[in-house]
Amino acid sequence: MENTVSLHHNIVYSRSNQKIKSTEHYFPEHALGIMLSGESHYFTNEGTFVMKEGAICLMRRNQLFKKQKNLGPNGEPIALISIFLDQKNLHQYAIENNISKQSAYKGKPMVDLTENIFLKGFFESLLPYLDNPKILNAKIAKLKIWEAIELLLQTSDNFRNFLFDFQEPHKIDLEAYMNHNYKYNIPISSFAKLSGRSLSTFKRDFRAIFETTPEKWLKKQRLEQAYFLIKQKNKRPSEIYLEVGFESLSHFSYAFKKQFGGTPTDLKKK
Q: Could you tell me the keywords of this UniProt record (predicted)?
C-alpha cells in the first residue's frame, strides 16, 4: 500500500513496499520529481518514460498518463518526492521577475533532468524534512518552490516557455480526442477541461456527436476494446482490465458479462 505524506501543499513524499500497477493520472499542474528508490513507468500516447533510482523528471501540466511503480532490483521500496509548480506560484513569480506572457509550449511533455547536479542538490536539501515534515512551513515551502523554478530557468531558456505558458486547453475536435484517449480512467470533468470545454458544453457537444452520454460511450468503447484484446490478441483479462480503463478486475468482469452475456474468462476459453 502506498503511503503519501504531504510535506506541504505542493511538496509530496510517497513510499510503498508493494508494486503499484497502472494507475491513471492527470496533473493539472507541472510536477518536478525525483525517484529515491524503486522505479516508475509512465505510459502516454507519446510513448513510455521510465524513472529509475536517482532519476529526475519534469512533467508538463494537463497531461494524461498511466503509471506503474515497481520495487527496486533488490526489493527496495518505491519512494519519490514530487513538487507541484502550480499556476498561482508561477503567476506570482512571473510578475515579481518581469517575465512576459509566453507563447504556447510545443515541446515534450516529460523532460529528463537526471544529469542536472543542481536539481539533485536541491532534492537532497529536502531529505531532512521527510522525518520532520512540520518544519517545512508555508514560508520555507514557498522558498523551495521558487528555488526549483529558478534552477529550471537557469538550466535552459526553453523552460521559460514550459513554465509560463498560462494558456488553458483550447476547444479541440472532441470526436478525435475521445477516440484517442477513452482508455484513460479519469473524471468526465477532466475530459471536459482537456478538450477546452466547460462540463455542460462538453456533455452537450458529446451527445451531439456520439448520440449518447459520455459514461455510456466510454464503457462501451472500453468493453469492445477488451473483447478484441481477449478474442483476437489472446490476452488474459487480468492483463488488460487496467489498460482499457477499468479500476478493478471484478468491476470489469461484471460489466463485460452484462454487455456480452458471458465473462471474460468464458471468452478466453473459446
A: DNA-binding, Transcription, Transcription regulation
